[in-house]
Structure formats: structure tokens, C-alpha cells
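Comment on the following before class.
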Amino acid sequence: MNSWWDLGEWSGNTGKDLSTHSIECPFCSERGNFDTEHHVEKKQPNGNKVLNFDTLKCGNCASYVMVFWSAGHRLHSYKVLPWPLNKLEKYPEYWPEAVGRYWLQAKRNLKDGNWDAAALMARSSLQVSLREQKAKGNNLKQEIDHLAAEGILPKIIQEWAHNVRELGNDSAHPKPDQPATPPEDAKDIVGFMDYLFEYLYTLPKQIQEYRARKNS
């Protein structure tokens, strides 16, 4: 497609009218449940093509979606703003299963704004990953220090891990009168989790693949 005027000319959905059945709400994931709140047309100068600008309202969560669409030869095609973010369905296959399972739950809870649950799952994923690396100790602090002493974790990761451990302690050991986990703390814990797994699993995997390519 070289121009927006080509939208819907050679590929798209059947019919010359916008079909919302396949449009997914980026906020609640409801599909095809929209009412048109506003419609504007832009006609092509010296031509017959029409570009349409629709504002749709989700019938489930009442959020708004902008749809830019046009019809061609018995087809129509569209672009949606905002678009649904990628759903987390799986973790890298080379990660340990337990590590990935907790990671998925942490990421999904963070996306949904469940800050306590996100912090708890991230902390659990962190501890499982350390134990998968043969960490020894009676608690998470000792396990972090053991892997640092073995040279598996560098100093900066060790210090950062202790900060994250302290942020996640309340979620892991709740008390009746404790405050809720702040969003910033939950995001920091999940962010560290991502960096740690990049260091423990993704980077070694990339190095292994690089060496295999060089040897072949």
C-alpha cells in the first residue's frame, strides 16, 4: 500500500460497510460490541474514494476507539487506535517451567493493576529462579548472597535484588494493618525480574546460539 487512499482496495474484510465483529476493545478485550458515536468522511480530490473516521464506543466498558477505514472493490479495511496490546500467553521455552509460570502471573497482574499480587508473584518467580540456580540458604536474603558469593550474580544484581526483596516483603508476609503495595513498587519488582531473567536465561541462550553458529 503506497497511499492511504489504497486502503481496502486489494485486501480486507468482505463488504463495503465497516464490520465491527472482529474489532477488539483494547481496554476490556470485548470483541464486536460497539456503537458508532461519531462519523466523518473525507472524499478523495478528483476521485471517488472515501476515507472514513469513526469513533466507536464499547458497549461493555464504555471506552472509546477510533477506527480509520475505507472500502474498495467489495472489500473494506481498517486501522484501530489504540490497538490491543499483546497478550501474554507463554514464556520462553528455554526457561524453567515454574519460573515462567510465576512470571506470567506477575506480568498479568501488573497489567490489570493488581499490585499486591504482581509483587508477590514476581518475588516468588525471583526465589524459584535462584533455587533453580542451586542457591543455598534459609531465606531469600541468604540465597541471593550465596549466588553472589559463587560468582553467579554480580555485585550490582546482588544489591538490586536485596532492594527488590525488601519491596516485596510485605506482600510475601502480610499483616492485617499493612498498606497496599504502591504501583511504583510493584513495577520496580517486575522490572527487576525481567532484567534478572535476561541475565540468567536469555543472555546465556544467545551466547550458546552464537557459539553454535561460529562452530558450524
Observations:
- The first strand starts at residue 13 and ends at 14.
